[in-house]
Amino acid sequence: MKRLSSSFFQSLCRYPSNQMLFPCACLQGCARGQLDMEGALTARDRVGIQDFVLLDAHTSETAFLDNLKKRFSENLIYTYIGTLLVSVNPYKELDIYSKKQMDIYMGVNFFELPPHIFALADNAYHTMLAEANNHFILISGESGAGKTEASKKILQYYAVSCPSTTLLDNVRDRMLLSNPVLEAFGNSKTLKNDNSSRFGKYMDIQFDIQGDAVGGHILGYLLEKSRVVHQNHGERNFHIFYQLVKGGEEDLLHQLGLESNCQHYSYLVQGECANVASINDKNDWKTVRNALSVIDFDERDIQDLLGVIASVLHLGNVQFEPDSKGYATLNNSAELLWVSTLLGVNVQVLQEGLTSRKIEAKTDEVLSPFTVDHAIYARDALAKAIYGRTFTWLVNKINDSMENKDSSRKTVIGLLDIYGFEVFYVNSFEQFCINYCNEKLQQLFIQLTLKSEQEEYEAENIGWEPVQFFNNKIICDLVEEKHRGIISVLDEECLRPGEATDLTFLERLEEKLDSHPHFVTHKLADKKTRKTLERGNFRLLHYAGEVTYCVVGFLSKNNDLLYRNIKDVMRQSKNTIVRECFASKESDGRRRPETVASQFKSSLLGLTDILMSKEPWYVRCLKSNESQQPGQFDDVLVRHQVKYLGLMEHLRVRRAGFAYRCRYDVFLQRYKPLCPATWPYWRGVAAEGVEVLVQHLGYLPDEYKMGRTKIFIRHPRTLFATEDAFEVCKHDLASRIQAQYKAYWQKGQFRRQKEAATKIETCWRGVQARKAKGRRQWAVKVIKKFIKGYMARGEAKTTDNSEYLAFVRQNYLNRLKDNLPKMVLDKTSWLTPPPVLMETSEILRQLHMRLMVRKYIRGITAQQKAQLQLKGITSVIFKGKKDSYPQSVSQPYVDTRISEQDINMKVLQMIRHEGIKYSIPIVKYDRNGFKARPRQLILTQTAAYVVDDAKIKQRVLYTTLKGVSVSTLSDGIIIFHIPSEDDKQKGDLIMQCDHLFEALTKLSVVANKQSAINVVQGSVKFQMKAGKEGIVEFSSGQESMVYKDKNGHLMVVSTRTRAR
Ligand SMILES: Nc1ncnc2c1ncn2[C@@H]1O[C@H](COP(=O)(O)OP(=O)(O)O)[C@@H](O)[C@H]1O
Ligand SMILES: [Mg+2]
Questions:
Q1: Measured between alpha carbons, how far is 28 from 734 in angstroms, rounded to an integer?
Q2: Quick one: which H or E segment has residue 202?
């Protein structure tokens, strides 16, 4: 969770020191989790803690330094003391200021991420928006500790993180670009810092109600003007001089009378280091030149501004010579000419102003000439004055360009980048002012911190435990108290008639402050201290330590004297900037101008007022080493800074009662997973939830207190334990939340798919329904037509019935095709045709029949044919006459029923020559007794033989065979009627044959006796012997039998066939 909602942000406590302490976390119960957990804890050992408030040994300076050092060695340059940010200058580029990093810190609470200048900037910004009040960020630290860098980072952060519009981008550009311009004019290379700010800067960034940066305002404090005319060895003048000389275009330099060589200018060479490796003056010139145009400087302004810079350089080269009386003279100075040209003043008047002063004597004005030294002093004073005032003008000009003229309500964040406490080998007036400034800020700082602490305790109804701290009011008073304070004494000395010197000033101090516990001089000191103090020095015991100041120069620097006549000259200047700068009230009146120290004092009072009305945020910058080397941590140096920046003091105040506090809702929100009663929701009052939670966690009664809106926790270890427990369960929670989310997402997905499916289904059903409807309509039409057609089917072909008829035809033909009779004999299964097809059907039927017949015939063998021919003959003779005929039709005929082998050899020999055509076993009935005798009937070409084994019993020549009788019934009786004229003849032959039809058909064919075969009904007479007749009676009965009846008839009973 990178970004918290703004409401969450707004609900943050003002002391959100409850940071996430370790970036890595763990999963409960799993091995990896255990490892991560250990990782987190060892990481804490390695990188220290992120908030000093949570330092167990919070009173130990060594523990404090250890923690700083640990973190520094891991490139963690930021550490909190509550909301105060301690920053240690790494002297190397760290990849922690990118846009990506800014995004990470945007809208995120302190405790979510490691300490960072962005976190502080972001918190100040959001608190300002939420509470609609003003804030300031005080950045302090000694020269080179990283104050200016920090303030730039904050500005950059706001430039990126605040909402933007074209108009606002304009304001933003100006705010950002005012920086290089101010740095060019107000910064220089010193021994401590290649880009040291030589002025204090307070910048208000104005935000409208939506949080847009809409304007800005800068206040400058005490520019170190002396640098214009003098630089220590190894230091430079202000950057702008070098930038102009080295980077200025040829034309421009020509116009300004300059040469592109720093060595030409005495104001640039005193430090003997015009070139610095870390500074690219040429490039910086381009940046500044470009920035000037962006921040509303027109060409005229720029020309005038550069005129001033160039005139200062020329002024520095103006040399004086003593005349015979020892007064300073200045002849034919080309440099002075350039000064007068560039400033637009009369060269004579200028020369006069530089070499003499006007003294008003009653009504007259008398010119008092200068000695050479005096002239040099006046020259330098003019250079300083011009530069100093131009710097003020520049700040005002920048303010004009950033000013928001809209009167709507705005809130501001002030950025105070001010010089830190300074201690040099020789400390002068400037150090005195700077250190005084730091005393004031320290006082304010302690006041605000204590005040807010106390207010918070009161608001939360928690007993206030008085905190021991160093109250530096006594030192502030020592410096600024009216009549008694050092500044008062200094001013008095400056204004006093008579010969006042730096030493008389010291004497006055000794008089006034002889018993002050924080003031020592050589004279006032005890023996031991005296050894460490020169006579011209005084020592102040600052809150941050002792500083010895050398009084030399105090008076003149405080006076910052510029003679009236030279001021008058400047007021005549044709250079607009110079004219504006000198056209102030001070020169009108007779009153002496305010001294520098007084001015500074009142500007600090103003600053204090400004700051007191705002909510404070602090950035304390520390130098890690003196040599500006990356990776070096100078313990002594850092310890010293920790001390004089009052960090331990601050920590003590912050830790006085309780190490940690947090609003109930915020605390509950973060730690509620640790207690089943509060997870996932606590429905009641947050305070009660917290109470339940801490009870569950086992907090002891004296370890915490419940305030009105916040819980106060006494020891860091309690919080650590809680935080560790939270680390453990965080990942478990994460996976649970993840699972919930996945489920939610999947459900959504499923729902969408389902909806889509339903939609598709609906559409598809619609399509189907429309199709079905179409089909139904079509079917109705077709059926209607069909019915109409059906009704008119008998009529002549019309449009109404033609289709129907076609259908009927087709349907019939189709059905017929599948149901054609398969056999010739099948006469019944021909489909009945519809009336329209009667004729066709008949033709087709005949055709089909012919086809079948043809097929049948083609398939018939010669044998079958012969058989059929025989069957045909049988049919002619018997069909419809004899009962057993139909059954016989399917019985195939055989060639013979007795093979030649089965015929007796003797018989065979006798009849073979006649050609045996057919033989069959029969039963022969005697003529008289009708005894049944088995015999063989053999048909030859000419006769039929009745054979009994080896004997031919009877031979019937076909020619003699009169007729053959059979009954209409199903018996197998055959009677051969043979003429009996001859006695030898035996009479008619009565036989019973199982294959009656076969035998008789063969006979009719062999003997051509077709017509001789009679089928008789009832009875038949037969010839027993010549003249004697017998009768055979046929009847049907239950059982077939043949017997002789009492009447002498042969009775043949046959079973009735089903057909009858
Ligand atoms: N956060 C930082 N990261 C890297 N270098 C820094 C940082 N802060 C300061 N520095 C280095 O230290 C130098 C001095 O910083 P600066 O802000 O000018 O000091 P101050 O304003 O306190 O005198 C810078 O020029 C830069 O080289
Ligand atoms: Mg600076």
A1: 11
A2: strand 200-207
Can you say whether residue 466 is alpha, beta or left, with left for phi > 0 and alpha for psi between -120 and 50 degrees?
beta
pLDDT, one tens digit per residue, over 891-946 is: 889 989 999 888 999 998 989 898 899 999 999 998 778 889 999 999 999 999 99
pLDDT at 283 over 90: yes
Cβ–ligand 1 distance for 640 under 6 Å, the answer no
Whole-number Å distance between alpha carbons of 174 and 291: 8
Calculated CA dihedral for residues 875, 880, 883, 885, nearest 10 degrees: 20
Q: Is 620 in the pocket of ligand 1 (CB under 6 A)?
A: no
Q: Which of 460, 458, 617 is nearest to 128 (CA)?
A: 617
Amino acid at the residue 866: A
Do 125 and 109 contact (CB within 8 A), yes or no? no
**pLDDT at residue number 806:** 86
- Asked whether 624 lines ligand 1 (CB < 6 A), one says no
Look at residue 730 in the predicted model and tell me its pLDDT. 78
Q: Annotated catalytic sites, by residue?
A: 143-144, 148, 193, 196-197, 420, 422
Q: Output phi, psi for 626, to 5 deg.
A: -80, -25
Asked whether the beta carbons of 190 and 434 are under 8 A apart, the reply is no
Residues around ion ligand 2, judged by CB within 5 A, are 147-148, 197
The mean pLDDT value for 1016-1037 works out to 85
Question: Are 402 and 175 in contact, with CB atoms under 8 Å apart?
Answer: yes
| Whether 9 contacts 110, CB under 8 Å | no
Decide: 89 in ligand 1 pocket, CB within 6 A: yes
Q: How far apart are CA 840 and CA 834, in angstroms?
A: 10
DSSP one-letter string for 87-112: EEE-SS--S-SSHHHHHHHTT--GGG
pLDDT, tens only, 566-614 = 888 999 899 999 999 988 655 455 566 788 999 999 999 999 999 999 9
Report the candidate in 331, 360, 373, 377 with the shortest Cα–Cα distance to residue 565.
Answer: 360
What end-to-end distance do the CA atoms of the chain give, in Å?
110
Average pLDDT over residues 402-415: 90
Q: Are 1016 and 966 in contact (CB under 8 A)?
A: yes
**Ligand nearest to the CA of residue 94, numbered in listed order:** 1
At residue 922, what are phi and psi to the nearest 5 degrees?
A: -135, 170
Phi, psi values for residue 1014, rounded to 5°: -115, 140
Q: Using CA atoms, how far apart are residues 365 and 966, in angstroms rounded to an integer?
A: 196
> 158 with 106: CB under 8 angstroms?
no
Residue 945: strand, helix, or coil = strand
pLDDT at 656: 73
C-beta atoms surrounding 609 within 10 Å: 9
What's the maximum distance between 2 C-alpha atoms anywhere in the chain? Answer: 222
CA–centroid distance for 1022 within its chain: 127
Q: What is the pLDDT of residue 270?
A: 92
Instruction: Please tell me the total number of residues recorded for the chain in this structure.
Output: 1060
User: Is 236 in contact with 262 (CB distance < 8 Å)?
Assistant: no
The 8-class DSSP code of residue 33 comes to H
Position in ligand 1 atom list of the atom nearest CA 87: 1
Asked if residue 145 has its Cβ within 6 Å of ligand 1, the reply is yes
Total-model pTM: 0.65
Separation CA 506–CA 352 (nearest Å): 35
Give the amino acid at 363. T
What are the E-state strand segments in 473-567?
519-521, 537-542, 545-550
CA dist., res. 60 & res. 50, Å (int):
16
Please report, to the nearest 10 degrees, the dihedral formed by the alpha carbons of residues 126, 127, 132, 134 taken in order: -110
Q: Give the C-alpha distances (Å, rounded to integers) separating 290 from 179, 241, 279, 287, 299.
A: 12, 17, 18, 5, 12
- Pocket of ligand 1, candidates 89, 92, 179, 645: which has the most ligand atoms within 8 Å of its Cβ, to mutate? 89
Q: Which neighbouring-strand residues pair with 963?
A: 977
Question: Which ligand lies nearest the alpha carbon of 146?
Answer: 1
**pLDDT value at position 984?**
63
